[in-house]
Amino acid sequence: MKLRRRRLGVICSFLPFIAVCLSLIVSMEGDLPRSGKPETGLLFFILPGIASGLVARRRRVVNALLGALLALPFCYVLIHLFLLPSRSVWQELAWLFSAVFWCGIGGLVCLFVSRMFRH
């Protein structure tokens, strides 16, 4: 039962992470955000972390991060399929790893809220 819930937590982070990434890529209209322009779209990556945290009872942050890290190669391929290659590989990877960071923050938010309700 524990393993099934852990896998479900990873899947609940993996699939929404790809969906959020795809929706942001489509809305970017061909280019990653330029430097100096605030990127509020990255905050949507909190949602896969929260979804994973709600499903998993233990290791909420680890499940959220694991699902996001597993989705990273798929998102990298999506970026290269839909966006013009005007950015360097390092900038694209930095954008994706910041998305993983925000997904982990979503798992932390879920953990914080559950601890607050427990006390």
Automatic annotation (TrEMBL):
One of its GO terms (cellular component) is membrane. InterPro entries: Uncharacterised_YbjM (IPR020368). The keyword Membrane applies. The chain crosses the membrane at residues 7-28, 40-57, 64-83, 95-114. Coiled coil: none annotated. Keywords: Membrane, Transmembrane, Transmembrane helix. It comes from the Bacteria. The keyword Nucleus does not apply. This is Putative inner membrane protein. It comes from Kosakonia oryziphila.
